[in-house]
Design a protein that fits this description.
Elements lengths: L6 H15 L8 H15 L4 H10 L1 H11 L10 H19 L5 E4 L5 H16 L10 E5 L2 H9 L1 E3 L8 H7 L2 E2 L5 E3 L2 H4 L2 E5 L12 E6 L8 H13 L1 E9 L9 H4 L1 E4 L4 E3 L2
Parallel strand pairs: 1-2, 1-7, 2-6, 7-8
Antiparallel strand pairs: 3-5, 4-5, 8-10, 9-10
The structure holds S-adenosylmethionine.
Amino acid sequence: MMSAGGDAAFRALLQQLGEAQDLRVDAYKDSCLRRRVAVRMRACGVHTYNDYARRIREDGDECDRFLAALTINVTKFYRNADMWDFVLGSVLPELLEARGNAIRCWSAGCASGEEAYTLAVLLLEGAGRTRMDPLHGPCIDATDLDPRSLQTAADARYPEEAFGEMPRTLVARYFPPEGREHDVRAVAGEVRELVRFQRHDLTREPPIDPPYDLILFRNVVIYFQRVMQERIFATMAHALNPGGTLVLGKVETLFGSACDLLRKRNVRERVYRRP
Ligand SMILES: C[S@@+](CC[C@H](N)C(=O)[O-])C[C@H]1O[C@@H](n2cnc3c(N)ncnc32)[C@H](O)[C@@H]1O
């Protein structure tokens, strides 16, 4: 197979992509970048980094397509059910008891919104269970780099398949069916009201409105270089209120200076607590 070009051509291409998208490409793992560039080059039918660089200069939309390829936004409602069961059963009762309506949460790297809406549902469920007043105003900041995912989140309509892991009682209670075939579900107003979506780059911007009581940071950090992972973990730890909780993805583990601030709370579900 013909070589796509040397390292210098690859680095020049990355610099061009970074400048065009105002993106810190050096924050991402090299392997991740190489795979995504290869995917886009195949789709464009070009064989060298220099040719792909030329394509980007000539076709303004190609940069957006590269960003879409880089920001893998696979997600689901109630993804990793055991983690959500733990949040509902152990984390939220404690936080709602301590903070009530003042509770503040952050879904960092929220993709198309399923994670943030799942949390909103569980807050409503948890608040009901502890017989609190209904929650007022948005208490969940949901952020992502990818504007197209954020648009899907704002539209708040999802195909039936997106709810495969969520308990059916919750689906029926908070996501009324829509459409002629009833194959789409809308997010109920009381759920939407709790979430505020915003574009945000974890690699270059501070948290938007700390401190938080609960941060969900799942299945995002795996794409970053180790140095960047450590830096963001530390930022998250500092962004938590005392008593606050950080949840990582199923295969992610905390390391670095964040470990000085946080204690393991549930090792299996990657849940950490700031004492
Ligand atoms: C696999 S999704 C995770 C979605 C959700 N947290 C979950 O676990 O189901 C990863 C998300 O990270 C986002 N992402 C990638 N780089 C980012 C960055 N620098 N800042 C913010 N979000 C980023 C992507 O756009 C994508 O939506």
